[in-house]
Amino acid sequence: MKKATMILDKDYQIGRIDKRIYGSFIEHLGRAVYGGIYEPGHPTADALGFRQDVLEKVREIGVPVVRYPGGNFVSGFNWEDSVGPRDQRPHRLDLAWFTTETNAVGLHEFCEWAKKADTDVMYAINLGTRGPENARDIVEYANHPGGTRLSDLRVKNGAKDPLGIKLWCLGNEMDGPWQMGSKTAFEYGHIANESAKMMKWVDPSIELVACGSSGSGMPTFGDWELTMLNECYDNIDYVSLHRYYGNPTNDTPGFLARTMDLDDFIHTVVAICDAVKGKKHSKKVVNLSFDEWNVWYHSNEQDKEVWKRGKWGCGLPLLEDVYNFEDALLAGSMLITFLRNADRVKVACLAQLVNVIAPIMTRNGGGCWAQTIFYPYMHASRYGRGTALKALVDTPVYDCKDYEGVPLIDATATMDDEGGVTVFCVNRDMKNDFQLSIDLRSFGKLALKEHILLHHDDVKAVNTEENPMNVAPGAGPGGRISGGRATIRVPRLSWNVIRFAPVEN
Ligand code: AHR
C-alpha cells in the first residue's frame, strides 16, 4: 500500500466557509424547470405543480442558494413576462437554446419553490438585450416594500412581502459571442457599473456579481477581467468564473488532474481583482463567485440530434449528461479546490441542479434519481461547513499530458463549530490503495466517527432509473486513531469523507 501524510492544526486556517459555495443553478433550459422541478400532473406534484420527489432530493443535498433563471437564457429574457396572471404571460422564442419559453414558471413561482427547497435565490438580470433601467426595475419589484408602481404590482401579483433577493448576477457570460447582446469588456464594465449603482440605490443591502470570462480558455481571459473591473470595481462585490471539464479522449488520469487548471484559474482571477484594488487605491476586496462548474460533454452529440428533430419545443431533453463514476471523482476534487480557496471563493454553483448537466435526474411522469456527482456534492454541503483548514499533504505525484506533479492524494479538511473535523479526499491512483496518516494532535481528543466511501471498479459506471444505486456511497475501510494520529485506508480511485468527532472527557 502507498503512503501519504496530512498535517492539520486547529489554528492553521484558511478562513470561514461561506455556505454559498454549495450553491447550484436552475436555468430555463431543457427539462430543468419544465419536467424537472415543475411537472403538474406528476403523481408527486403539489398544488403548484412542483415535484415533491425532486424537492426531497434537493433538500437531501442541502443547497443554500440557487442561481436563476439563466445562464444564456437570461440574456434575452424580459422578467416582466414572468409575473402576473399566468394565462396572460407571453410565449416567446428563446434564442439561447432554440426553444419556446411559456413563462408558466416565473419569478413568484420560483421563489415559492425556493422556499420549499430551503434555499435562497440568486437572481440573474438581463444585461444582454437590456440595461440599467430594467436592472433597477426588477430590484424595485422584488425588494422594495411597497408604495411604488412596481412594488405594488408585486403585491397585486400575490407577494405582500418583498421577495428579499440578496444576491444578483449582472448578466451572464457577456464576453461570449454566443450570448445575446454580447459586449466588449469596456462596454460590459460600463453597463454593469451603471446597473450596479442604480440597483444598490434601490436596495443597498444587495450583493452583486459581475461577469468574469466565460472560461479561462477565452482569448480575452485576463484582459476582460482587468478592463471590466476597472469600470465597475467600486460597485460590485464578486467576479464570476465558469468552468466545465470533459474527458472526450478517455484519459482518466488527465481528466482527474483538471483541478490543477481550476486552481490556476482561481489564483489568476484573485490576482487580477487584487491588482485592480491596488491600482484604484481601494480598501475593498472583490471576491469570487464560481457560479457555473461541472463536467459537461456527454450530451453534446445528443443535443445536435434533439435540435435536428426540431427546434422551438418546450422542455426538450437538452444537456442531459449521464454522469459516470470518474465524473464524481472530478466533482469531488473540484469541491476540494473550492474549500482550499475558501478565503476568496464565496459562492459556487454546481451547474445545474435537475436534468440539465445535473446531479438529479427525472423521467417525465416517472421516477427521480441521484446521478454519481450527487454524492460528493451532498457530502461536501452537509459536512464541509465551518472553517476551512490549511492541510499540509505529503503525497506521491504523477505526470500526465497537460500537467506535471499531480498529487495522487487530493485532500483537504474542515473544522465545524462543534470541534469536529472532516477530511475530504480523492485518491487519483488508478491501481493503489493508500495509507493516509493524519496528524490531528492540536484538536484534543477525537474519535473516528465515520468513513464514507464512494468507489466503483468501473470508472464508466452510471446510475439509471432502473439501477439508481449502482454508484452509491457506503462505509469505507476506516482505520484507527491514537495519540492524535489517525491512519486511514483510502482505496484506489475513490472519494472519501473521513469524519472525526470530539470526545467528551
Ligand atoms: O449551464 C449551461 C450554460 O453554460 C449556461 O447557460 C451558460 O452560462 C454556460 O455557457
Can you tell me the CATH superfamily of the largest domain? Glycosidases
| Total DSSP helices | 11
Multimeric organization: single chain
Q: Rg from C-alpha positions?
A: 23 Å
Mean pLDDT: 97
**CATH first level of the largest domain:** Alpha Beta
Shape: globular
Strand count? 26
Q: Name the helicity range.
A: 25-40%
Could you give a short account of the major beta sheet? 8 strands, parallel, barrel
Uncertain segments of ≥5 residues (pLDDT<50)?
Answer: none
Distance between the terminal alpha carbons, to the nearest Å?
35 Å
Look up the CATH topology of the largest domain: TIM Barrel
User: Helix/strand/pairing class, anyone?
Assistant: alpha/beta
Write up what this structure looks like.
- It is a single chain.
- The strands form 6 sheets. This protein has an 8-stranded parallel β-barrel, surrounded by 6 helices. Strands 2-15-19-20-26-22-23 form a 7-stranded antiparallel sheet, with helices on one face. The chain has a 5-stranded mixed sheet with strand order 16-1-21-25-24, with no helix packed on it.
- The model has no long low-confidence stretch (mean pLDDT 97).
- Helix content is 26%, strand content 25%.
- The protein contains 11 helices and 26 strands.
- The protein has helices at 52-61, 107-116, 132-143, 149-156, 185-202, 223-232, 252-256, 259-279, 300-309, 325-340, 374-383; strands at residues 2-7, 13-16, 23-25, 65-68, 92-94, 99-101, 120-125, 167-170, 207-210, 238-245, 287-295, 345-351, 360-362, 368-370, 387-389, 392-394, 397-398, 406-407, 409-415, 421-427, 434-439, 446-454, 474-475, 479-482, 485-490, 494-502.
- The relative contact order is 0.15.
- The longest helix has 21 residues, at 259-279.
- The chain has 2 domains: 2-9 and 388-502, Golgi alpha-mannosidase II (Immunoglobulin-like, Sandwich); 18-383, Glycosidases (TIM Barrel).
- Helix 3 (132-143) packs across helix 4 (149-156), helix 3 runs parallel beside helix 5 (185-202) and helix 10 runs parallel beside helix 11.
- Strand 3, helix 1 (52-61) and strand 4 (65-68) form a beta-alpha-beta unit.
- The protein has 505 residues and is an alpha/beta fold.
- The two termini are 35 Å apart.
- It is globular.
- Residues 27, 70-72, 172-173, 214, 292, 351-352 line the site of alpha-L-arabinofuranose (AHR).
